[in-house]
Design a protein that fits this description.
mainly alpha; two-stranded antiparallel sheet; 5 helices; 45% helix
């Protein structure tokens, strides 16, 4: 067993950049001021355009319904762009979140359609539907990916990010499919 290994989420919670700026300099340590020359274009910094959504996030589903990963990806990107954090969160992280959340929604729809129970293939007795276990797995993946995205935003964003987030919108997406 490893000793002295720090696990994520242990210890004091980190303050967000916004909280640090509001607190001023409580430790009264000398602050390092960065001198960024205008030759580097520091005056007119702009965000980047949204990278194109990958084809696998738009692929047709077997049941004929639209796959929601593209919509989730765009929604998260727009939220990050509003906060000015679109350049510090990797597109792969957003893709991972969008795919996991879209698959979770698919599993929930399958559970609604087929129910919580299924028939065991060899004994014929009732058993838990495999969609329930898959939904749990995808929910964990989506939550982990969202926590990573939100941690990056919390540590680097100077704007107020306490309002609605794309993660809050998933309930709306679940209701819109029916």
């Amino acid at each position: 067993m490893a000793k002295g290994t720090r696990l994520p989420g242990q210890g004091r919670p980190r303050k967000s950049t916004k909280e640090k700026a509001e607190a001023g300099n409580p430790g009264h340590r000398p602050l390092e001021v960065l001198d960024i020359p205008e030759a580097l274009g520091a005056v007119d910094l702009e965000g980047v355009d949204m990278p194109p959504v990958k084809e696998y996030m738009k692929s047709a589903q077997r049941n004929g319904e639209k796959f929601l990963a593209e919509d989730i990806y765009k929604e998260v990107w727009i939220w990050l762009k509003k906060l000015g954090c679109e350049t510090i969160v990797s597109p792969q992280m957003i893709e991972h979140y969008a795919m996991a959340q879209a698959r979770y929604i698919q599993c929930q729809e399958a559970i609604s359609q087929f129910g919580f129970l299924s028939k065991h293939p060899t004994t014929g007795s009732p058993m838990q539907s495999p969609y329930v276990a898959m939904a749990t797995t995808f929910e964990k993946q989506a939550t982990l990916a969202w926590n990573l995205i939100f941690q990056v935003v919390k540590e680097n964003c100077t704007k107020d990010f306490s309002g609605e987030t794309p993660n809050d919108e998933m309930e709306r997406l679940l209701r819109s499919r029916s």
